[in-house]
Amino acid sequence: MVRPRTGEKDRQIVDAAIGLFLERGVRKTTIQDIAKKAGVAVGTVYLYHKDKTAIVRRVAYAFAERHDAFVEEVLARRRKPQRKLLDYVLGFYDMWQPFGQNAQGPLELAEAVLRHAPETPGIAQKRFLDAVATILNEAKESGLAVGQPRVDARWIALSTTAFFPLAGTPSEHPLRQSLGRDDLEGLLRWMLRKMEA
Q1: Which of 32, 68, 72, 119 is the most buried (most CB within 10 A)?
Q2: Residue 181 and residue 17: Cα distance in Å, rounded?
Q3: Structural domains in the chain?
């Protein structure tokens, strides 16, 4: 019988799986490897997860849970909306980095998530838009030049898409140079100057 996916042991199993999947890839990671890294018995892994596919799905949702916790933390900060927007998008960039690498592990994990949890990219997109729209609504209420927060959030998402490639896809701008965190911060600061004008 599979137990509900809550508690410390589940977190240990999921954290171990994430680390191993990113390091070795999904194919080369066994349930035994996950159990050993999590510090639990192999049977305990099976109590929480039916098989490796179920673990991949749980990993995908674990990233969503981490994102949601991060959004709550950013929104609760006593900072100006401009700073919250920078904090959120740059923090999202930092969380996304393992999936933007072209190493085998992240590539396999991205492929496995798309195969076994195909709904999660759409969920991630909606949550990103919701978070940015919430911050932009706060910015509008504070007097910044924000038209329609939901529409402007979409434009910000479209403008920053190149900074969040899926593993195995190119991450270059027209000058054929790699895009980095500094480039993203520069773009965001430029956008914020337009809002403050």
Answers
A1: 68
A2: 27
A3: 60-196 (1.10.357)
